[in-house]
Records
---
Amino acid sequence: MIKDREAYRRLCEHERWEALRAMTVEQSVAVGEALLTSELMDLAVFPDDDHPMSLARSLRIPEARLRRSP
């Protein structure tokens, strides 16, 4: 049972930041693209919708580097 919620919140926040810092650029791009292509984006409204491009492509990350497993 969690007795000190504030301490637990700080610990979780620290662990989240450490996990993000440990990610490679490719992993960060993959997470970003997964979020952008998820059902969560169905909730988002973009009145000036342009035609989105893959973030990895716009950063010119070779597709072969994105396909390798960690």
---
Amino acid sequence: MANGTYSNTELIESLLIDLNKLQKLLVDGQFIAYCDLVAKMGQKLGLLRKGVQNDLDNRDKVIEQLKNHIRDLGEEVEDMSAEEFVERAKEGKL
């Protein structure tokens, strides 16, 4: 945990731990604690969704910054899908 927030990996790990706790709470008849844990897991999933989206948004920004840097160095940048890249590599057209 950094700066009081969980990383995506830490959230996933804590959700796995919570899943293991759920069964014990049900078997022990602790239904209110079970419901509380399910609610907390829902909150964690919401945070995880937000964290993943932030990572994706940040990734796109970093890619654009790197492409601009390459252009500033005088090189050409060509956008293509991963599938197109693999196909061109197979054909020796890279």
---
Amino acid sequence: MTYDVNPEEWPFEVIISHEDGGQEYYQHARDNGDGTVSVYELQLPGGYVERRYSKTQVKLTERPWDKAKKWYALYERVYGKKNG
């Protein structure tokens, strides 16, 4: 994978809970539809790689700025664009 991330391919952020009680956060994740979630992870010195985790140990959420864009688009459809 390259450093450039297509937000449409990686639409979620994720918190992964491990058995030892530890947690990890990743900004770019996607649901694979097969009970797994893939994350875009930096592994030095090699670069970015895709890793899979079981969906039972993750919490997927929509990134706040993406959610805000959808709310602004909905507002504009309902009330029209702001003037000024």
